[in-house]
Design brief:
It is found in: Cytoplasm. Its main location: cytoplasm. By secondary structure, this protein is mostly beta strands. It has one domain (about 15-150): Tumour Suppressor Smad4 (Sandwich), CATH 2.60.200.20. About 5% of the residues lie in helices and about 35% in strands. The chain contains two helices and twelve strands; from the N terminus they run αβαβββββββββββ. It has a seven-stranded mixed β-sheet with strand order 2-12-1-11-10-7-8, with no helix packed on it. A five-stranded mixed β-sheet has the order 4-3-5-6-9, with no helix packed on it. It is globular and about 55 Å long.
Length: about 190
């Protein structure tokens, strides 16, 4: 038998890819303590903390508007399942954290979707989970975005405007009279 045949089976490792953006990153350098060059391995029972206090947080942001501990990510295995996941917990008493459209207050936590945008203050973080099989550890891989991750979205026009620029007096394709719509229903 060759050494290749006797080698241990290689495990794939769950990796959390985090892409960071802040509009002032060029002049304020708030990400200078983060290692964007390589993957970092963490034990499964380690909690990945993000904030400005480098003695408490593994991922330190150099910004006085960031809480000492802003939020944490915990790796875990789902009950009665072989699936692994991350939970995110807001640890800031002053700043709400948004995961996609879900707002988290102090000590609120939720499962991190496999792909989502985490926001607090002017910070935007795209989180993407790359699944793996390893049980004892996971990896993080940090990236820096040059452009905003979250783009402002304009509400689409409710009614198409014809090329001649003249709107019809009745809604196209409808034989009934116009109805009032609450702006919150859009």
């Amino acid at each position: 038998m060759s050494s290749f045949e006797e080698a241990e089976t290689e495990e794939t490792v769950t990796c959390l890819h985090l892409t960071f953006y802040h509009p002032g990153q060029g002049e304020k350098m708030m990400f200078r303590c983060l290692d964007f060059c390589r993957r970092q391995q963490l034990r499964a029972d380690d909690m990945a903390k993000f904030g400005r206090d480098s003695s408490l947080c593994r991922y330190s942001l150099v910004d006085t508007r960031v809480s000492r501990i802003q939020f944490s990510l915990q790796f875990y295995r789902k009950l009665h399942s072989s699936e692994y996941a991350f939970e995110i917990k807001n640890l800031s008493k002053k700043t709400k954290l948004t995961v996609n459209q879900t707002e988290l207050g102090y000590l609120n936590k939720i499962d991190l979707p496999w792909k989502c945008i985490i926001c607090f203050g002017d910070y935007q973080i795209l989180a993407e989970i790359q699944e793996g099989e390893a049980v004892d550890y996971f990896e993080t891989h940090l990236h820096l975005a040059e452009a905003p991750i979250l783009q402002e979205r304009c509400l689409p026009s409710l009614q198409p405007i014809p090329e001649n620029g003249i709107s019809p007096s009745f809604p196209l394709g409808q034989g009934k009279s116009p109805t009032e719509i609450d702006e919150n229903e859009l």
